[in-house]
Amino acid sequence: MTNKLRYFIGNWKMFGDFGSFKIIHKINQFSYKSKGRFKKKIILCVPNTLIHFFKKKLKSKFISLGAQNCHYHQGYGPFTGS
What we know:
Order of helices and strands: EHEHE
Strand content: 25-35%
Shape: elongated
Largest sheet: 3 strands, parallel
Oligomer: single chain
């Protein structure tokens, strides 16, 4: 086992929806299976519109919740600032 802390940060961009929550099960499986092999910090950065929903639903001690900045841009796309 290495002493280095590894970070896994998932950025949802701006295309997330409530159905995105289903991936939490897979992330928990990864975290459990890798338990003891290396130190890790898992952070999910969800769209602003989903922060409250994820905060209420996320009960995992292995996963932290983060936010992302966003930027208005004319047109279509996941513009999340700089």
